[in-house]
Amino acid sequence: EGSNGDRTDGVPGASGGGGAVLKHPCPICLDNEDDTGGITGDMGMCYSCGQLFCGSCNTSISDHGVTKCPTCRAGFDVPAEEKVRRLQQLLARPTGRHTPLAQFNLGIYYASGRGVAQDVAEAVRWYRLAAD
Questions:
Q1: Residue 15 near residue 24 (C-beta atoms within 8 A)
Q2: Alpha carbon distance 43, 101 (integer Å)
């Protein structure tokens, strides 16, 4: 393992379709890297445990009947206030691969006023933290 707990080896059996071993396979399809789509792309994240999943699965989660995180089993369909609470708890944990995306997503909630009072300055603060 690396210094931040990330695996530094590949995951056998997760080939990404091209034969290459994936370092962090999507836990839903096992065909793509879990962060396919980038921070502002269409990849998804469980706001409870921080597990990332690829953009292909994120855009089709409801089509496949996936209602819970495959890692921690937390439900995806919760009110915005609960999503904000989960993101805040996630960001209180040690920094990891989930941190920039969680910061970016929290910025979105502050910018839009969903789940929290709208606060553009707070949104910008979270966006800047995510960019660092």
A1: no
A2: 10
